[in-house]
Specification:
Shape: globular
Largest sheet: 6 strands, parallel
CATH superfamily of the largest domain: tm_1862 like domain
Distance between the termini: 33 Å
Bound molecules: S-adenosyl-L-homocysteine, iron/sulfur cluster, FE3-S4 cluster
CATH class of the largest domain: Alpha Beta
CATH architecture of the largest domain: Alpha-Beta Horseshoe
Low-confidence stretches: 1-19
Amino acid sequence: MERIAELTILSTDDKEAIDLPRTSVDELVEGKKRLYIESYGCQMNFSDSEIVAAVMRNAGFATTSSAEDADVIFLNTCAIRDNAEQKVRHRLKQLNTYKKKKPELMVGMLGCMAERLKTKLLEEEHIVDIVAGPDAYRDIPKLVEEAETGQKAVNVFLSREETYADIAPIRLNSNGITAFISIMRGCDNMCSFCVVPFTRGRERSRDPYSIVREAEQLFADGYKEVTLLGQNVDSYKWQSDNAESVTFADLLARVASVHPDLRVRFSTSHPKDITDEVLHTIARFDNICNYIHLPAQSGNSRILELMNRTYDREWYLQKIDRIRAILGEECGISHDMISGFCSETEEEHQDTLSLMEYARYDYGYMFAYSERPGTLAAKKYKDDVPEDVKKRRLSEIIALQQRLSLERNQRHIGQIHRVLAEGPSKRSDADLSGRNDQNKVVVFPRGTFKKGDYVNVLITECSSATLIGTVV
Ligand code: SAH
Ligand code: SF4
Ligand code: F3S
């Protein structure tokens, strides 16, 4: 789920550190108060910040890309691992210098860390004026008003219904080509290591008509790709009052039918929920990308059981087989993996490596286990794998992924890929960078092309992170 800037191999520590993702929309501000938002964690949080910006605009605020100029600063936080929280605490220390210069500055904590710590945050971080959980964003203008009177303002109620379906997000940090659409909220899965069910509440699916309308609007505005977001998109299920029932496969087909030039991606799939119907829908539509993010977490059945993932190694491998059978060898597959979960032995770690070899993943997000207070694992199991062992196992997982990524990328040399140009490449203005069907970054000479164009590129070279080619 977490946002990536480019396909490079990331480990625990750099994953949330890619950039300081802040509001980059500077609006006309005359007479208006200014809002600055920074987002941490997964794509859901980035997407939520766009909802928050819309709510605040309705309340008369303008967005700014400069924290120093802001009247209100929001940090939309992540609690997934301890280091994600440490990063935010560190950032609060930096923001203190602004608050000292401008005591009327309001600082708000939003998102998962706010939900996890609730009023405790106010005791621990004196700079914080406002605490708002993921389901409280409609209430934010009221919380700001309350805080302006000098009292601390908190709303951390979780909802069973809120999907913000009627709020048109303000696209922040947008390249104008790719956008996220949130299709569901919350998670009911209770993986034993994971804090998300506690910070995001119960699972609920958003009205499909509002999702399709948002996709149509984006396409009309020039966007060429949407990513449907949820913690567990394959369990999307919507039921209307007159018993119309929409599954994730149905929704995918509806969004893909908006226009053949609107590409559709989705994330994240839980292996227990992804169905053949979804795979066949991907196969049926050229504009649904041939790429699946299928977190494994471990390659060992005993550990998967302790993690409460509800599948075992064999089930997972059989899912990989189904994907390759229905979508072909070229389908891009990525994973999430955790090293050093409670009581993991060296042999069990080897099972993770062998599962990765079998799956031949294109890409991965890999983490050392970080115990989260209140989770099932924290209550039931001992976090007993020493830190240096977790780190060493993690580095073995990352090294293997690097090799697999390179091997997978080398397969593409000599092939022609349809690439959606997203903007200039990082290294040179003479090149454009975009992504192919499998979500891989492809760099090619700009020529007369511009961002938003689909370009056929012959792949001629690669690294483990990038494909390089020429236009055909
Ligand atoms: N809903 C997604 C995952 C969201 S969290 C899914 O189920 O696939 C993103 C990733 O963070 C997880 O897949 C897991 O690999 C990692 N993660 C979650 N909790 C963690 C923890 N306590 N320690 C280390 N990594 C964790
Ligand atoms: Fe966390 Fe599991 Fe839900 Fe993913 S499916 S958000 S890992 S509880
Ligand atoms: Fe996302 Fe982090 Fe929350 S990964 S759901 S922002 S805990």
